[in-house]
Amino acid sequence: MTRLDDLATPSILIHEDRLERNLRNLQQACDAAGVALRPHIKTHKLVPIARRQLELGAPGLTCAKIGEAEAMLVTGVREIFIAHSLVDLRQAPRIAALADQLDELRLAVTSEAHLEAFLPLIRQVNRPVAVMIAVDTGLHREGIREDSAAERIAQRLAEEPLVKLAGLYSHEGQFYGADHHQRSTEVAALLDHLDRVRNAIDPALAIWPGCSVSARAVLKASAGRVQAVRPGAYVFGDLSLTENANVMPWDDVALHVLATVVDKPTAELALIDAGSKTFSSDKTAADIAARAADGRQLEVFAVNEEHGYLRGKDLASVKVGDRIAFVPAHVCTVVNLTNLVHVMTPDQTLRTTWPVDARGKNQ
Ligand SMILES: Cc1ncc(COP(=O)(O)O)c(C=O)c1O
Questions:
Q1: Residue 188 belongs to a domain with what CATH number?
Q2: Closest atom of ligand 1 relative to the 134 alpha carbon
Q3: Is residue 130 part of a domain?
Q4: Per-residue pLDDT tens for 68-110?
Q5: Measured in angstroms, how far is the CA atom of residue 36 from the centroid of ligand 1?
Q6: Measuring from atom 16 of ligand 1, which residue has the nearest CA?
Q7: Residue of the nearest CA to atom 2 in ligand 1?
Q8: What's the CA-to-centroid distance between 269 and ligand 1, angstroms?
Q9: Range of the domain at 327
Q10: HEC string of the chain?
Q11: 198 in the same domain as 177
Q12: Which pTM was predicted?
């Protein structure tokens, strides 16, 4: 039986009890609100977790890329939404193959400019597909900016025999940095916005907002208006959810990065063996890449490829050779940088090791 002490570092640890709690709790909240949970698998990229999400009641999965969707087919999933702006005609055969293997493949139209590239692609795919129109609700990334654009897109899609307009979706990534005291007001405005765009086209269309920060607030405020949510990061959590967005308790964070202190060049600085090739370069609003998971005041404030720079009030307690578990700033990029994750039992025994099935499936 392998114990935590036997693992080489840096290693990615998943705490199975916390993971299971996170999966169950959100599924139960969705069930209670009568809203489907269609989790975004870009966070975990792991077949065993997707299987569990489906087993607990998710009717389908959300993916960012075709490759992620392909990697998830072995779960037996029947419905996949690829929430991304697909344009490449070279990908038509892969999209058609996905459509052939699913009960429903849902694709995104993210603007009128995107529609012009999407239509030739979808004609080449030549399979029935459901389409969701992206609405920009404040992130200012993809999504229609004016309500009338959604109406025009809907009219154009109605002329396509194999396309069924199924709904509207949004991603509220802006909530990660927003003042959480304002969240219920912002979620109310978000739902009013989506509802208004929907009603101008067809009140029967589905509304699928998606973000771990807003998921619970959306469930609370839905009042029958929302049909599904698509959070991703809730499965593991990270500093973005615990301290930026303030929606996750520290002890619910299910993924830690185990690293070793490899040097302490001064009394104020220690170096760990995990840098940007482990944590990525993403940082919190407070410019932190990771914090010690054990509650000590130790923060990774800078990263080079193979080094993390550690400082903090508790640095005196740290010596070369120590092994420290960290909560990363942004968990999705951490998972995509590793081949394997180690699943730990509550007594710190290694239950199993999972290969990251959709790791690097970015096409
Ligand atoms: C389109 C889309 N939907 C859903 C999500 C899931 O968001 P989160 O990981 O914050 O739950 C993301 C995350 O980036 C996204 O881009």
A1: 3.20.20.10
A2: 1
A3: yes
A4: 999 999 999 999 999 999 999 999 999 999 999 999 999 999 9
A5: 16
A6: 171
A7: 171
A8: 35
A9: 4-11+248-355
A10: CCEHHHCCCCEEEEEHHHHHHHHHHHHHHHHHHCCEECCECCCCCCHHHHHHHHHHCCCCEEECCHHHHHHHHHHCCCEEEECCCCCCHHHHHHHHHHHHHCCEEEEEECCHHHHHHHHHHHHHHCCCEEEEEEECCCCCCCCECCHHHHHHHHHHHHCCCCEEEEEEEEECHHHHCCCHHHHHHHHHHHHHHHHHHHHHHCCCCEEEEECCCCHHHHHHHCCCCCCEECCCHHHCCCHHHHHHCCCCCHHHCCEEEEEEEEEEEECCEEEECCCHHHHCCCCCCCCCCEEECCCCCCEEEEECCCCEEEECCCHHHCCCCCEEEEEECCHHHHHCCCCEEEEECCCCEEEEEEECCCCCCCC
A11: yes
A12: 0.97
Ligand 1 centre and the CA of 176: distance in Å? 11
Q: What is the distance in A from the centroid of ligand 1 to the CA of 31?
A: 20
**Domain termination residue (choose one: 235, 257, 290):** 235
Q: State which of 85, 168, 171 you would mutate to test the pocket of ligand 1, scoring each by most atoms of that ligand within 8 A of its C-beta.
A: 171
Q: What is the pLDDT of residues 279-338, one digit of tens each?
A: 999 999 999 999 999 999 999 999 999 999 999 999 999 999 999 999 999 999 999 999
User: Does residue 243 form part of some domain?
Assistant: no
Does 208 lie in the same domain as 131? yes
Residues with CB under 6 A from ligand 1: 40, 43, 83, 171, 173, 210-212, 230-234
Q: What is the CATH number of the domain that holds 283?
A: 2.40.37.20
Q: How far is the CA of 110 from the centre of ligand 1 (A)?
A: 15
Mutate to test the pocket of ligand 1, among 40, 111, 172, 241 (most ligand atoms within 8 A of CB): 40
- Look up residue 162 and give its amino acid: L
Question: Distance (Å, rounded) from C-alpha 167 to C-alpha 198?
Answer: 8
